[in-house]
Specification:
Layout (H helix, E strand, L loop, with lengths): L5 E7 L2 E13 L5 E5 L5 E2 L6 H4 L1 H5 L2 H4 L4 H7 L7 H14 L16 H10 L11 H14 L12 H14 L8 E3 L5 E3 L1 E2 H13 L5 H16 L1 H4 L5 H9 L4 E5 L3 E6 L4 E7 L4 H15 L4 H11 E5 L5 E7 L11
Antiparallel strand pairs: 1-2, 1-12, 2-3, 2-10, 4-7, 5-6, 8-9, 9-10, 11-12
Helix pairs in contact: 4-5, 4-7, 4-10, 5-7, 9-10, 12-14, 13-14
């Protein structure tokens, strides 16, 4: 099998230091492949890029109605937040609505990912708790599903728990594929991590944005999730994060979600497209440049959006003294697509 193509270069001063290989797929809701490169049929772990599809369980379980969850709650349930104060408040408000506490979480604790929030927490003398975990919003959503199903919340992270059985069914419905039990791992936050192909992911995200190929109930759920994410982009990630800044730049015309180990997935609702990409070696900075370059090709950006994506598709790296020492740039994507085409 041929290796995936090189999609990013790291040049240190005037010498090539690294080449990053990857694959991507752009598809419509029918699964028709509009553009791709590399191996798009091999199953990969999308990790947190799958959160918006997992959130469909909030609707199917009846949790949204039972607990009067709003768009802020739905957004934080689909987030990989940086642990900033606004994120922590959103998660705690969610927990209060469903009658749960941080002690019910099964995600584990870590300091805020955002440097400013991390320093502020340390200066306050307060130890990080599970609410600071960047997946705490998703776990609040899982707790809400358990409460709505009237099943025990304890053990909600296990693959055999009713919550995870429902989540699995929701992912399968949206992506249109069967999830193989032998390709289920454990994510960093202890929830099941399901493997899907880039083709299935791109198709699923196109279906999520348009509702095409989905039941009326599921289509309403996915549109609400996409709407919540694009309306509250800061909750999805945070300060200077690609997902947040890209969605803010595009308004409601882009849903973007990254996942660990170099994955980005998303939807372009007005164009009816979904996309998925992975950087082979998991480098998130390289994957971000690839995602930005892909969106330059397919999103029909205006001049302001194009400027943003160009800046994110080529990064100047600095050392601890502030010296410019390297350039990380997406390559191999051809010429920019004509926005009026």
């Amino acid at each position: 099998m041929s290796p995936n193509p090189v999609l990013a270069h790291l040049v240190r001063n005037n010498w090539m230091e690294n080449r990053y290989r990857g694959a991507f797929c752009v598809a419509d809701p029918s699964g028709r492949i509009l553009w791709s490169a590399g191996d798009i049929v091999r199953d990969i772990f999308p990790r947190s890029a799958l959160k918006s599809l997992q959130s469909v369980a909030l609707f199917r379980s009846g949790a949204v109605e039972r607990f009067a969850l709003d768009s802020l709650d739905i957004a934080i349930a689909s987030a990989s937040h940086l642990g900033e104060p606004e994120h922590v408040r959103a998660v705690r408000n969610f927990l209060e609505k469903i009658g749960c506490s941080e002690d019910d979480f099964e995600c584990g604790s870590h300091p805020p990912t955002d440097r400013t929030a991390r320093k502020a927490l340390a200066a306050s003398g307060v130890s990080p708790s599970q609410v600071h975990n960047n997946c705490s919003g998703k776990h609040a959503g899982m707790l809400a599903v358990a409460r709505a199903l009237d099943v025990p919340v304890k053990g909600y992270s296990r693959p055999d728990h009713p919550v995870q059985k429902l989540v699995r069914a929701c992912i399968q419905d949206v992506a249109g594929v069967e999830l193989a039990a032998e390709k289920c791992g454990t994510d960093g936050c202890s929830l099941p991590a399901w493997a899907l192909s880039l083709h299935a992911l791109a198709t699923g995200f196109a279906r999520a944005a348009t509702g095409e190929g989905l039941s009326e109930q599921t289509a309403a759920a996915t549109r609400a999730i996409v709407g919540a994410a694009t309306s509250h982009p800061f909750l999805i990630a945070g300060t200077d994060a690609f997902d947040t800044d890209a969605m803010a730049a595009f308004g409601g015309n882009l849903m973007s979600k990254g996942g660990a180990e170099g994955v980005f997935c998303g939807s372009l609702p007005q164009l009816g497209l979904g996309y998925a990409l992975k950087c082979d070696d998991g480098n998130m900075q390289a994957a971000e440049t690839m995602a930005a370059r892909l969106l330059l090709e397919i999103a029909r950006p205006d001049e302001r959006q194009k400027a943003f994506l160009l800046a994110r598709s080529q990064k100047t790296l600095k050392n601890w003294r502030g010296l410019e020492v390297a350039t990380l740039q997406a390559v191999g994507f051809g010429h920019l697509a004509d926005p009026d085409a």
